[in-house]
Amino acid sequence: MLTVLIVNDQELRRLGYRLLLDCEPDLSPVGEATGGAEAVRMANALRPDVVLIHILEPTTDSIDTVRRIARDSRLHSHVLVLAPGGRADYAWSVLRAGADALLPENTAPHELTAAIRAVAAGGAVIPPVLTRRLIDVVRRRSPAYTPPSAQRLGTLTRRERQVLGALASGWSTIEIAEHLSIAPTTVKSHACRILAKIGARSRVQAVAFAYETGLIAPHTTRSPLPSPARRDVAG
Question: How far apart are CA 69 and CA 79, in angstroms?
């Protein structure tokens, strides 16, 4: 059973999310918080699998809430954020703060429950339309190959760069495994090592890193996967 902490300042909306989760046999709402400080306290007390945060008004406080929950190594809670559309800069800040998923607030119920399961399993969820906007933000705000990022990129093996580039281009674990002729579990192992080396908590942050460093050009959301010319000894 996956446990979910609901965070929203409107009682009617919290009720709607609770009823939605109650209808799913594998999802359980374990608590409700009305704001950031309460959300952090309840996350520490309940240790939910997923913290569902519906942000009505984008503020620095809401970003701080995401950061405090996502980066608390004691919690192991994944953060899924629902936010108003049209604010790509704010969305970028939320993802950099550590959110594992970012969805528009008008997301369909079945898509929301699917996203909760995906992030609980360690995945990352960003709609294609939002990905396009985020890439534009990176292109405007983040110069390619900033020294700290370039240094961290240099710690990756050739195979790890291939895997990171594929993830950032929208390829699934299965697709990467088939193309590189390796097992899906090996792809996941590479992904874990990549996160550790670049200091990212989630795949979303790893994708951001790939665009910031110029590993992936920001002109497309799904580029062809690099062809492995040889099999890396290290990968």
Answer: 8
* Cα–Cα dist 230/100, whole Å: 33
- Residues 132-149: pLDDT tens digits? 666 566 556 554 434 456
Of 72-76, 154-158, 163-167, 201-205, the one with minimum mean pLDDT is 201-205
Nearest Cα to Cα of residue 115 among 83, 78, 89: 78
Question: Does residue 35 form part of some domain?
Answer: yes
Q: Which residues pair with 103 in a beta bridge?
A: 82
Under 8 Å CB-to-CB from 25, ≥6 apart: which residues? none
CA distance 179 to 170: 14
| 182-227 pLDDT, tens digit each | 998 999 899 889 988 988 777 777 777 887 777 876 544 444 455 4
Domain of residue 51, CATH code: 3.40.50.2300
150 and 177 fall within a common domain: yes
Distance CA 151, CA 213 (A): 10
